[in-house]
Amino acid sequence: MGIDSELIHAKLKEFFGFSSFKGEQEQIISNLLQGNDSFVIMPTGGGKSLCYQLPALLMEGTAIVISPLIALMKNQVDAIRGFVAGNEGIAHFLNSSLTKAQIAEVTEDLTSGVTKLLYVAPESLTKEENIAILRQIRISFFAVDEAHCISDWGHDFRPEYRKIRPIVDEIGRAPIIALTATATPKVQNDILKNLGIMDAHVFKSSFNRPNLYYEVRDKIDQDKDIIKYIKQHPGKSGIIYCLSRKKVEELAQMLVINGIRAVPYHAGLDAKVRAENQDKFLMEEVDVIVATIAFGMGIDKPDVRFVIHYDVPRSLEGYYQETGRAGRDGREGVCIAYYSYKDIRKLDKRIEQAEFIFKNHIEDRGQLAAIRQKAEDEIAVLIKQRQKLYRYEPGSPQIGVLTERLKKLRHTAKLCRNIEIHSIEMEKRLQAAQMEEQRRREQREKEEQQKEARNQEKQRR
Q: pTM to 2 decimals?
């Protein structure tokens, strides 16, 4: 592209105010500027976003940034607009929250060449109308943020991410940069293979964060222990992760009662409430946010001083990603995890359910119900057989064999029933979320129509 190191450093200072790059940032940016595919594995706080933001501002055309969380896109767009004063169209996001008028504004800025960065959710990228828009413009490159979401071996698997490569081919091939803060070798290979960038230059930074202090504590009076710790560090920002939404609500309320400025955050809350609570935490109106793993991806808050795991984390990758949100400014961050054997048993049950589904190639509840029914029918037959043996052959070794078989069948039936119940609950939540989204979309369209009608009325007058 003819952009040398001196110009890259000058633009780094002009746009972002930095005098030097961190780690391999410059090499990653240079590789992208040369039109090559890149795969970046960099710890949380390592400066991944700069690796696509700066080249997007330097290259001709628009960079398409595929990001998993709609709620964070506005923050990212606002940040870019802050770097480039006087040009609101320099960055946009395209998702289901926009009205028709806003989409028209984004389209105009894209087609006129004003926009350098466009943030889209993978779901938005697959829509025909958006594909049609993107085919009209010159694309500098595609950036796939939180790329571990591509892999079903990852801790944040998102099926929509696996459709990215076919859509890229449909829109028009351009260099691809995939970025993640955590990926096992299996996940890394899955990402490269699924995106079709097996020849990409891989940049892997050290995951050692010497400013983070890790500690594991027994779950003994942990509520009292957490309150004591927070009060010993007044005014410090922190995140507390819980496995269940119920515990998030209870713990946030308990902290507030004890004089600690705290708010809850989980996927069951209304989208507006989630956004408000997130903003309160980012703007330091509260000190602590109590959350499920629904919170944190892409959050750019450098001064989080502690991350507490109320329960044992679900995976090592997830734990690293979540604790990595502490100390992003390079100063000390404390990571405390509470441990109990009971938590391990809960996770074992979830793993067992997942393995059962995988081994039996279960795709829907109908298959689960059939397996459960078969087990229950066999249980009824075996109980009768065992009763006859107890009556006529009380010392028969076959009684022990039947008892073991009954134990396994009852376990299978119970497992199926639990998975079915969980599946129904998840389906209800999904339907409720879809209905709420439809209601909001209709409300936005109605408001837009009313606005247009008012404008027309003014023009007639």
A: 0.65
